Amino acid sequence: MTTTLPPPFDPELGAALAALADLIPPSLDGDLLTAMRSGSALALPTEEELRRGGSFQIEERTVPGLGDAPDITLLICTPTAPTGTLGCIYHTHGGGMVLGDRRLGVVEMLDWAEQFNLVVVSVEYRLAPETPHPGPIDDCYAGLLWTAEHADELGFDRSRMIVAGGSAGGGLAAALALRARDQNGPDLLGQMLIYPMLDDRNDTPSAHQMAGLGIWDRNANEFGWSALLGDSRGGPDVSPYAAPARATDLADLPPAFIDVGSAETFRDEDVAYASRIWQAGGRAELHVWPGGFHGFDGLAPTAQLSHDAREARVRWLNRLFNG
Amino acid sequence: MRLAALDADAGAALRVIAYFDGLAENKAGLQAIVRGAAVLAGCPARLDDRSRRVHVRVDPAGRAAPDPSAADESWMHTPVVPDASATLWLERVGEPGPVEAMILERAAGAARAVLDRTRGRAPSEDPALVELIVDASASPEVRRQAATSMRLSETDRFRAAALPSGPQVFPAEAKPAMAGRTGIDLTAAPLDRPVSAAKPRVGIGPAVEPLDLPAPYAKARVGIGPAVAPLDLPASYASARIALRFAADGTAEDPGPMVVRHEDLGGLALLADLPESADVPDLRALEHATAAGPWVLSTLHAFAEATSLRAAATALRLHHSSFQDRITQAEHLLGWPIRDPHGRLRLQLALALRRLRRHPPA
Questions:
Q1: Does the residue A179 lie in any domain?
Q2: How does pLDDT run across B2-43, given as a tens digit for each residue?
Q3: Is the ipTM of this complex over 0.85?
Q4: CATH at residue A92
Q5: Looking at CA atoms only, how far is residue A256 from chain B in angstroms?
Q6: In terms of CA atoms, which chain A residue is nearest residue B4?
Q7: Is A11 within 8 Å of B32 when comparing Cβ atoms?
Q8: Taking chain B, what is the end-to-end CA distance rounded to the nearest angstrom?
Q9: Is residue B47 within 8 Å of B56, Cβ to Cβ?
């Protein structure tokens, strides 16, 4: 395929990338993975930071995995002084399926939790390559089932539960929505998919455009998907619960929020997913941020585009929970 | 990996450089540049440009936070342009540390590129500066400053223009082609071919290429002064104001060119010196004749401006003979013969005086 130049980065975001160029490898391989897992490259919040001076009660619960799978840990953050009926965000963290833990990405969830009276439950799922598919999604689903069953104990209204995640976590959240639909799982009010990782085929124009550029380029993406799927990556037998883009039926799903940057690997697969939801008659909101690279709002939170992206998410949540 | 979390070491200074270089390369605007300074320094940052009346202030979270109160002189700051008419501030007291100094230097550099770029786009559009530079009562030093602010080079030539709304300044070699002008061009058509769509005309003299004017002025009356050096713009403007009086509304009641160049007026310009109260018998006769009906003015005007009767007739969409009849009647109302050169000159002068009376000095 002839590749054209990618869309330019937003001026502020491009400048941020330039300033932090040496800290961010666009690609990932085995050696780099080891280094990244042991270092503090990912900004993980402390318990103190999660507690927010008493606004949240922080708890960890160990709950059974699916079938013979080992127990999993859930991080549970409960507002201590809610101003209304509590709902729940069931959060699946990002990290390309190979990195991260249950605390990654929770800080933004807590902002929403304060605004919309939500319990945040973030699941620790086993990572690839040590645990290939279906291990990670099974862990996430087990946690979801447990959370829904224990809604009363956790104090939230089970009709106000959403799944949410960014990057690989967004892919996992989309897979949870599919699986809950297919396997009589809990009813979900919505699915928040933040620049989600949906397609193991890794062959879209945007994937090719961004090779070697920005954050999480095509090579890193191949590494992550191969870690999860091994040799079946890109082949005929990939389950939609591993790669939601593979789902043939996108009807009857909870309302989706999808956002993505115009200058990242996942642009085309995320746009396609939203389009297919509409074609199936479903509800979805799509934002493609001009000049945004993957994870831009986390890396450069004060840029104008990052403000706008966060605001758009909040507006959707407002319509969902307060509409 | 937050951009704001830079350690205070040599690496941080390099990152600051890379960040503002990135902003400049990407042609980021002032808001983004000031935001970068505020976020990287961890305190509010502001840019004040007195001459362009620009005020940008951002808090360390990146939110716009304008503040009308003056900057505190003890805050860290740096000039953005050499004449110090624009300043970048970090709202923090004390001597800047190495990272802060780098932020000030690099952010100011990026901001200067923006100001130069946007100033260059429309140098003559700041109304205050334009009024200053055409003001004969302003000292040459003040007008030289204004010329510098407007980026008017001493070696280039400019024209002042007078509009009902005030002065404008244009480069002397402005391109031809105006849009949306009314007025009849009676000079260009050969005898045996009809005049096509009405074309705009400039000046009372020979048809010249009209000047390019910015959109808001395209439908206004304009007088244009001669091409001069920036410091002579007051004289150009004085001429432009005279020329403006000769510019018509371009309506049936006041037909004629809407754009007039003073240098095209020739001796006609002297008519503007005539006192308003002066009694001119030919002008009285003209007003008397035009009272008989709208056709009188259009006939006389077409005749006065025509190079050929046939062309004039066609422009008025009249048969040649009908036009001849009208001229005869109008001539009768007027009280002097107009078909000979002398009579025609009297008519042209009367029409010019009529227009001047309709547009008294401001």
A1: yes
A2: 444 455 566 788 889 999 999 988 889 999 999 999 999 999
A3: no
A4: 3.40.50.1820
A5: 28
A6: A300
A7: yes
A8: 65
A9: yes
